[in-house]
Amino acid sequence: MLLGRGPECESLDRLIEAIRSGESRALVLRGEAGVGKTALLDYLLACATGCRTVRVAAVESETELAFAALHQLCTPMLDRLGRLPDPQRKALRTVFGLQDGPAPDGFLVGLAVLSLLSEAAVEQPLVCVVDDAQWLDHASALTLAVSARRLSAESVALVFAVRTSDDQMELPGLPELVIGGLDESAARSLLRSVFPATLDERVRDRIVAETGGNPLAILELPRGLTPKELASGLVVAPVRGLAGAIESNFARRFSQLPPSTRRLLLIASAEPLGDFALVCRTAERLGIGLEAAAPAAAVGLVELGPRMRFRHPLARSAVYRTASAEDRRSASGIRGGDGPRCRSGPIRLAPGPGGGRS
């Protein structure tokens, strides 16, 4: 169980128990950047033994691409597409660019996704998580909200993580679990695990107070500070906000990396699936070798494995926002031929029950 997250972990345990018993659940984890939403999603997936799992990370670079995030979510299940009713199958094939046709009704697309999730859960319960949901493209957000509000007894869990400050991503009508900072005891224990014997107790108390128990702030903001700076206790600049301070910390580390590593990370920041092989193929076309990733892993910006995973969504944001507009376009354009063909343009949302917007 995660440090200081007993009640939250118990809520996620109950969610897994529910879908194993044949029920379905939708849930929104809402909290400030760095508060631990991603860690809770990790916990949820680790507990989902015997379940099929799909993880999606929405990215800032694809917020203007209609259905980009939905394509991420549905791609592992497209082998079940033939089992859907004909209108629903055609709707999904159209929005994913698998066939030509006019933009389908948005409500129909939402029902098609619900049917696809249900079909994927026939053999074993299905757990889908969407991290950094504030970066969902508008079409995907509307469609997933339609599907999530209509879950009933499909053995499907659809869980979103979204930042508190991003009001544009409301996901109305879905149950929420608000994630706050760690309590004082847990926050002090976390800080001791990083600086076991180098901080004066008064300084430790000040860091815990100024970070508000935000786990990422406790772990990341003191990194790279001198003993004198740590002794001052002035780790966070309150006027900038925690998210800005943490992102600036990641940006500082990024700016100190070799040029080839910075270019590699920029390519990775624009690759939503974190497909390390695809990132490397793209980098090779620019003459950047695999060894360029090592400095980024050494300073804690990324984790390397079958996929290149950023240490935290704020690390991805720092890389993407630090780059110039020209470099962003270059990175996106280089890998553009490998991405999904998603249909652009508006979708029409039919009224939900009671006449409200879905």
Question: What does this molecule look like?
Answer:
This protein is an alpha/beta fold and 358 residues long. The protein has 3 domains: 11-180, P-loop containing nucleotide triphosphate hydrolases (Rossmann fold, 3-Layer(aba) Sandwich), CATH 3.40.50.300; 184-234, no CATH class; 253-338, no CATH class. It contains 16 helices and 7 strands. The chain has helices at residues 6-20, 37-47, 68-74, 86-95, 106-120, 138-149, 184-194, 201-211, 215-220, 227-232, 242-255, 259-269, 276-285, 293-298, 313-322, 325-335; strands at 25-31, 52-57, 126-131, 156-163, 176-178, 302-303, 309-310. The strands form 2 sheets. It has a 5-stranded parallel beta sheet, with helices on both faces. It has a two-stranded antiparallel sheet with strand order 6-7. The longest helix has 15 residues, at 6-20. The protein starts with 5 loop residues before the first helix and ends in a 23-residue tail after the last helix.
Features:
globular; alpha/beta; 358 residues; 3 domains; 5-stranded parallel beta sheet
Shape: globular
Q: Give the rounded overall mean pLDDT.
A: 83
Strand order of the largest sheet: 2-3-4-1-5
What is the CATH class name of the largest domain?
Alpha Beta
- State the secondary-structure class: alpha/beta
Straight-line distance between termini: 36 Å
How many domains? The number is 3
CATH architectural category of the largest domain = 3-Layer(aba) Sandwich
Here the CATH topology of the largest domain equals Rossmann fold
Strand content: 5-15%
Number of strands: 7
Count, helices: 16
Which parts are unreliable, with pLDDT below 50 for 5 consecutive residues or more? 335-358
Percent of residues in helices comes to: 40-55%
Radius of gyration: 21 Å
